[in-house]
Amino acid sequence: MNTQLLQVLADGEWHSGQALADAAGVSRVAIWKQLQKLQEAGIALEAVKSVGHRIVGGLDLLTDNDVLGAVNDTAKSLIGELQVLQQIDSTNRLCQEAMSDRAIPGKAIVVSAEQQTAGRGRRGKAWVSPYARNMYLSVGWQVQGGAAALQGLSLAIGVAVVRALEDLGVATAQLKWPNDIVVEQQKLGGILIELTGDMAGPCSVVVGMGLNVNMPEYAQDGIDQAWTDVYQQGVKPSRAELIASVLNHVLPLLQHWEERGFAPWREAWQALDAYRDQPVNILMGDARIAGTERGVDRDGAIQIETTLGLQSFHGGEVSLRPQA
Questions:
Q1: Which PANTHER family match (predicted)?
Q2: Is position 122 annotated in a ligand binding site?
């Protein structure tokens, strides 16, 4: 994808074909192919004869310098490597590869992208990823205690992301167990945590985070659940500001996780629980368990009051749904 062409069109104004060709460093004939590639990537282009071309609404493009310039000093000191890519299949996958090759204890590898072609959430569900419209972010961190030391991490990350949103003026975000960020029961974002290495000893954790920021109309047909985005909350931060705010909260969490664990985050998670004391169903494969949601235990397992008493359920293939 031609970055020079994108940078010119990002302002949302009209540009003639010749001006675009000059900016992209190609011929007037070749510029049509470049514009077609942008359309194939899902970018909403508008063309008017004798006027030119524009991206409807413009684009908020990312650069690594923009992100690094917006993070606070604490977060910056914890970043070992930061990549901002145009397009990739999955930021989590690339982050996992980078952690396998060059993980440094106490330093994060951060990967973001303008677009994912194979983004996914829990249980392999596809994550709709229009170009330069949302936040697609992965953070890799090395841990010494193995998988057992990470109980409750996805819930704590959810609290950190909500606090990052609050810093930017989104005051109504809540959490749905185990890893969804919601506003009035509409999905705003999600978290996907993956591990590589020795599950019983030193290993790498990759925290994938996605947030809907400014979802375009053309991408909405691919979403099979109630959703919302940051712009619909009445605030319009740049995506660099949003990523920086998330890193400001998530990186110190990871730095101190093994010594502190989930305990300091449990009360905050309970306060943000979107379904506390509400009737819900727990889905496990073909099984469905009805009850009342009673928050999470000390390990982050969801607690459901059923006809058999209070039961706890851990993540994995377990999902929570509100009763109709």
A1: BIOTIN PROTEIN LIGASE, BIOTIN--PROTEIN LIGASE
A2: yes
